User: Which sequence fits this backbone?
């Protein structure tokens, strides 16, 4: 596997917009060509080489791994629209990491800021720390958010995560989000997304859910009044075939959207 | 012929709140160019007209900070220094615009684009969530005249028009006699939902006292009840389920209803989601009857700012031009969030007072960097600014266009001349833009 | 005396609206906006006279304002400061990434501080300038 190592060598006051840091853009480029790629700092255009040391050797996007060192907690849009390969980030990461990613894998060994994996269309995003608001969400005004792929967050995610998620039975697309705990309005306007939470969730989980599955192994600070108890189950089967064991209370909803719905919310009994 | 000492200007549009009352009469002393009497306006509108008279709080000449003190200077020097600050900045913030007219707002957009800066208006701290929700789920709305003539059920949710839009009730929503509502107040059923028994609530037919920060759950329960679902809890957000059922019944029986809402929904937790669910509620109510929704916009031309920004850039507020083209993302490019993350290096404040109206921590950042204020009065922002450019007050001292809260454009009138060397906002921004272009060699 | 676990709301009042038009740096603005309105019963618990300065503390800051009894009550547990520089010392600047700070609904505690000084708008904002 070809490997490119980037190391941030300069601090910067404003966020650095680095949507070019992606396996697709790096593929087949020499290190000098990579250093000449353009980043945005405030209203200035700067070269990647000004801010990052570039070592290693590039190759085909499928076979390429980008490793990023140094504090990139204020670098935005890494891995935007990436389709293949792998990015490993050994630090906290700024906003929009892996947004609209179609394939490949991104691992963050730290926290991610807001909009991580927004409108994900495939691939896998792993965050070992916490993630910010709007993780795996639709951007403003979009009616289709995360359409496929997996987001795994070990820690807590912020508010309104997985907003407007949309599955497709026909195309066999099942967007899934795993997380340790979550803020308010988890899976709002859900249209078929699957969310599994290990711990507790703040208010209004599954608000306006049309269909989809949300499994919460902890508690919800305030359950919505429009969710109705269906019964108790000992096992939850997810649309992708995965089974989750444990005693859950099954609720149907959100009934403020439809009187009869197959949207489900499972909360640990 | 007898020379009249006082002239009266009729049908004046009030430039204070989004109601844009259009029936003011203003008396102006011909010799001193001072407002001496205002008729028909509310207390606040009247105060605004009187505040345009020369006083110790009104700037009449451009000011620039030298040796720690604001000192009078010439327009040329002030514009030159201001342009210098903006051109040298990598991430200038252009904020305000809601209390000026549309032509000046358009010039503001051009300036932000030329600078590659961030453009934001005061919707960012008030009805921005409304705009976000409208982008998510649409908005069924109408003009205020329709409500006046037809509405028989009026809901005020999280707003207090008696204080914030004093003449709204009398002109459009509560007491006024409409074409089909000839008996005025008696022909309307008024509902107020608020955590406090506000003055608006005290004159309503039904007051629903909701717990602070829990509007979303209440609205959610109303929607579910409307769908025929039995609520399992006994009370939601401090409101007994029986009362929710009563409320749903009233809403369904309305022949033409409207919800007006304000900061009580947009500035509490859940922000735009409160509006989102309110709009969905309207959608569902339209299965039974006719129902519409309108935000109670604060600044008189904040709706205009949203309109002008939208037709120029595609987005209503929180716009970033740093990459040469407009991008939009409240939370990322909105003023308070930028300031909290210390992401600006200068600011141009137009017709606004963020030092008073932003949370304290964000004001600290604002003051760390050069600040240019286009502002007619002494405010906590202008007093600590580096450059103050005194404008004429639109709608009093110069003409322009403004949009009412229901997006109806009205032409503002001029009633008198501005004191001192004041220029219109449009002219100030034009001169600033010209200077900026000259400096960056465009 | 003190009150714990109150919910602080902020918003427009007509007096504050009048004061801000051209008189933001005047004492009129202090009278209109540097106040905190209490529910009648809550105010009894404070055991002080109307107009006594009170210190309002939230997770986001503290400010001293004059106390008054709300004529828009009853609203037990809720305190109200008109929008403006004083309220903004204690509001939640976090917008949860939606752009609009949370100006309403903060948890607050109230302490009576007889003899404490209520600052005017400029002195208050000057503290932020110097910070």
Assistant:
């Amino acid at each position: 596997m070809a490997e490119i190592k980037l190391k941030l060598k300069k601090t910067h006051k404003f966020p650095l917009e680095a949507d070019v840091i992606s396996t697709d853009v790096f593929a087949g480029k020499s290190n000098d060509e990579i250093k000449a790629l353009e980043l945005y700092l405030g209203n200035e255009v700067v070269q990647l080489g000004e801010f990052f040391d570039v070592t290693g050797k590039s190759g085909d996007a499928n076979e390429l791994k980008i490793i990023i060192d140094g504090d990139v907690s204020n670098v935005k849009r890494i891995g935007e629209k990436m389709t293949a390969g792998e990015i490993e980030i050994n630090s906290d990461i700024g906003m929009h990491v892996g947004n609209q990613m179609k394939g490949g894998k991104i691992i963050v060994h730290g926290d991610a800021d807001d909009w991580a994996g927004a409108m994900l269309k495939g691939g896998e995003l792993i965050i070992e720390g916490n993630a910010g608001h709007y993780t795996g969400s639709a951007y403003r005004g979009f009616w289709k958010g995360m359409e496929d792929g997996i987001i795994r967050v070990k820690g807590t995610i912020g508010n309104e995560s997985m907003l407007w998620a949309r599955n497709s039975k026909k195309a066999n697309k099942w967007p899934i989000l795993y997380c340790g705990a979550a803020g308010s309005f988890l899976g709002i306007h859900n249209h078929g997304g699957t969310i599994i939470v290990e711990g507790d969730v703040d208010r209004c989980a599954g608000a306006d859910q049309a269909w989809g599955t949300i499994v919460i192994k902890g508690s919800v600070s305030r359950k919505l009044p429009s969710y109705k108890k269906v019964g108790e189950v000992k096992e939850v089967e997810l649309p992708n075939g995965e089974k989750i064991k444990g005693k859950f209370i099954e609720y149907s909803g959100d009934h403020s959207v439809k009187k009869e719905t197959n949207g489900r919310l499972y909360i640990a009994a | 012929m007898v020379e009249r000492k006082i002239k009266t200007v009729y049908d004046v549009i009030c430039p204070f709140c989004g109601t844009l009352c259009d029936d003011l009469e203003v008396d102006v002393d011909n010799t001193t160019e001072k407002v001496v009497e205002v008729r028909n306006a509310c207390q606040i509108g009247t105060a605004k007209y009187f505040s345009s008279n020369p006083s110790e709080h009104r700037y009449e000449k451009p000011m620039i900070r030298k040796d720690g003190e604001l000192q009078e200077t010439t327009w040329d020097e002030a514009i030159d220094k201001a342009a210098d600050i903006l051109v040298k900045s990598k991430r200038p913030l252009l904020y305000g615009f809601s209390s000026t007219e549309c032509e000046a707002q358009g010039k503001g957009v051009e300036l932000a684009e030329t600078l590659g800066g961030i453009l934001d208006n005061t919707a960012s701290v008030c009805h921005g969530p409304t705009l976000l929700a409208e982008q998510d789920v649409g908005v069924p709305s109408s003009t205020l005249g329709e409500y006046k003539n037809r509405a028989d059920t009026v809901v005020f949710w999280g707003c207090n028009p008696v204080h914030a839009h004093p003449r709204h009730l009398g002109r459009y929503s509560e007491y006024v006699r409409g074409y089909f509502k000839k008996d005025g107040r008696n022909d309307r059923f008024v509902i107020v939902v608020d955590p406090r028994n506000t003055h608006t609530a005290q004159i309503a037919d039904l007051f629903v006292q909701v717990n602070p920060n829990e509007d979303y759950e209440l609205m959610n329960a109303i929607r579910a009840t409307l769908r025929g679902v039995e609520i399992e809890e006994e009370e939601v957000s401090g409101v007994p389920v029986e009362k929710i059922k009563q409320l749903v019944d009233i809403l369904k029986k309305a022949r033409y209803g409207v919800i007006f809402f304000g900061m009580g929904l947009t500035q509490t937790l859940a922000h735009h989601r409160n509006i989102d669910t309110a709009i969905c509620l309207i959608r569902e109510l339209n299965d039974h009857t006719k129902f519409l929704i309108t935000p109670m916009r604060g600044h008189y031309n904040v709706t205009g700012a949203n309109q002008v920004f939208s037709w120029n850039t595609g987005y209503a507020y929180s716009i970033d031009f740093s990459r040469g083209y407009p991008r939009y993302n409240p939370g990322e490019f909105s003023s308070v969030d930028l300031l909290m993350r210390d992401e600006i290096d200068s600011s141009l404040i137009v017709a606004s007072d963020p030092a008073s109206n932003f949370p304290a921590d964000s004001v600290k950042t604002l003051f760390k960097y050069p600040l240019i204020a286009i502002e007619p009065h002494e405010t906590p922002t202008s007093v600590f600014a580096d450059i103050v450019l005194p404008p004429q007050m639109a709608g009093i001292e110069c003409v322009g266009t403004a949009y009412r809260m229901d997006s109806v454009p009205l032409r503002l009138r001029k009633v008198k001349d501005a004191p001192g060397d004041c220029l219109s906002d449009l002219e100030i921004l034009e001169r600033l833009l010209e200077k900026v272009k000259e400096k960056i060699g465009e | 005396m003190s009150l714990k676990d109150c919910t602080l709301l902020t918003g427009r009042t007509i007096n504050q609206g009048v004061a801000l038009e051209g008189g933001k740096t005047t004492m009129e603005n202090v009278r209109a906006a540097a106040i905190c309105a209490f529910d009648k019963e809550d105010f009894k618990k404070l055991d002080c006279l109307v107009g006594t300065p009170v210190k309002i503390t939230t997770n986001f800051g503290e400010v001293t304002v004059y106390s008054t009894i709300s004529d828009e009550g009853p609203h037990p547990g809720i305190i109200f400061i008109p929008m403006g520089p004083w309220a903004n010392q204690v509001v939640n600047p976090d917008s949860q990434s939606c752009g609009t700070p949370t100006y309403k609904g903060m948890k607050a505690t109230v302490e009576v501080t007889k003899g404490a000084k209520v600052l005017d708008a400029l002195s208050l904002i000057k503290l932020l300038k110097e910070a």
Notes: Chain A touches chain B at residues 13-15, 17, 40-44, 95, 114-115, 133-134, 139-141, 160, 184-185, 188-189, 203-204, 207-208, 222, 224-226, 228-229, 254-259 (CB under 8 Å). Chain A has a mean pLDDT of 96. DSSP finds three helices and 17 strands in chain A.
